[in-house]
Design a protein that fits this description.
Elements lengths: L3 H16 L9 E6 L5 E7 L8 E6 L11 H4 L6 E6 L17 H6 L2 H18 L6 E6 L6 H8 L3 E5 L6 H11 L3 H12 L7 E2 L2 E2 H8 L4 H6 L4 E6 L7 H11 L6 E6 L7 E2 L2 E2 H14 L14
Parallel strand pairs: 3-4, 3-5, 5-6, 6-9, 9-10
Antiparallel strand pairs: 1-2, 2-4, 7-8, 11-12
Helix pairs in contact: 4-5, 6-7, 7-8
Length: about 300
Amino acid sequence: MRLGALRRRLACALLLAASAGVSAGAGFTALALPGEGGALLQALERPARAARERLRLIVLPGSGCAGMGAIADRYFAALLHARVLVLHKRGVRADATTAAHQCPPDFVQQDAHPQWQADALAAARHWLAQRPGDAPLVLLGISEGAELLAPLAARLQPTALVLVAGSGLDPVEAGRLQAQRLGAADAWEALARAQAGSRPDTEVVEGRSLRYWRALWHWPVQEPLLAGPWPLVQVWGERDALVPQEAYERFRELAAARAAPYCAVMLPGADHDLQSPGRDGLQWLWGRLEQWARAPAQPWCAVFRQIP
């Protein structure tokens, strides 16, 4: 497997599994939100499906250039009392179903964590200003999106954070572990040398620009999550093929010493998108969030211990 696929498949897995047999959901509406410098980001919004609104959820999807428009209604079906905002990266259409290996060159060149963070922060702030409310704010990151939660939380001050299929480790360390798992350690070292060299940022290596890889190589995730004051739940599948169990377990051991509440949930038999035969782990997660939102003063981990 080419190393670029390690990141691209993180984007594809959730989309492919959730979109099987699903048409565009009528519950979500598309809107444009200002990113950094006034650039417009395509987003999806859905009000609470049942009164009253108990939760506001801002979602950072995974990598790639496909939007969640075709799957959002089903994906978030069990969230009844939550207002949901899905933020897409700059250059991603909400209704796009573009395969990750076919992302256009302009997207590849502008895709990098610092840009995504700046855009997401600007868009989230604008949305929150336009949608004032007192319901708890939760930030949720899916795969790559989980790597942006801590810097956004430091500025948005949410009530809690949720990592879905995100290791919690720095992405360069999680990538190294996955490369070892796939027998691609030599290719990972070659990529390390390329990003550390003098080749131009615009050069594409393993499907991403060197600008992307250079930012990723020095992007902190682990320490900000460990030190942050926000309650944190991390949910992953026992049979995740895209993130090694070793990565999840390593972060779980470190996070056990967090000053703020931390709840680790490994779903038995589930894959990267939390699916297992006859069981949808995503809908279980939404149900747990709903239960917590009914009594947010209860211990953060109490509802997440009821693993299906």
